[in-house]
Design a protein that fits this description.
Layout (H helix, E strand, L loop, with lengths): L6 E6 L5 H13 L3 E6 L2 H19 L3 E13 L9 E13 L1
GO molecular function, one term: nucleic acid binding
Pfam families: SpoVS (PF04232)
Organism: Desulfosporosinus acididurans
Length: 99
């Protein structure tokens, strides 16, 4: 999570459960927060895209829309790494808006 009260950063892996991520993200968006989904690699981005599609469907039933903008971003790696402390990945910036 970020120190900023209006943004939340969630790291997505290939093993992230899309339904659980959708539920968590929807809760943060309903609270008016901006959600960052940080992905390194193909599988995490696949999971993120699935979640974005599910979120759009969920939010549309409530008369809301979703802005989802991808950017390249340097992401810090957790845990012990040899020689590399960050990699370039994709950060999806998700914001809820009125339809």
């Amino acid at each position: 999570m970020n120190g900023d009260n209006n943004t939340i950063t969630l790291k997505v892996s290939g093993q992230t459960a899309p339904h659980a991520l959708k539920t968590a993200t929807a809760g943060y968006l309903k609270d008016g927060k901006t959600v960052y989904l940080d992905c390194i690699g193909v599988l995490p981005n696949y999971v993120a895209v699935k979640v974005i599609i599910m979120l759009r469907g969920l939010l549309s039933t409530m008369g809301k829309a979703l802005n989802a903008d991808p950017f390249f971003h340097d992401i810090s790696l957790d845990g012990p790494t040899i020689g590399v402390s960050e990699k370039t990945g994709i950060r999806w910036i998700l914001k809820q808006r009125e339809n």
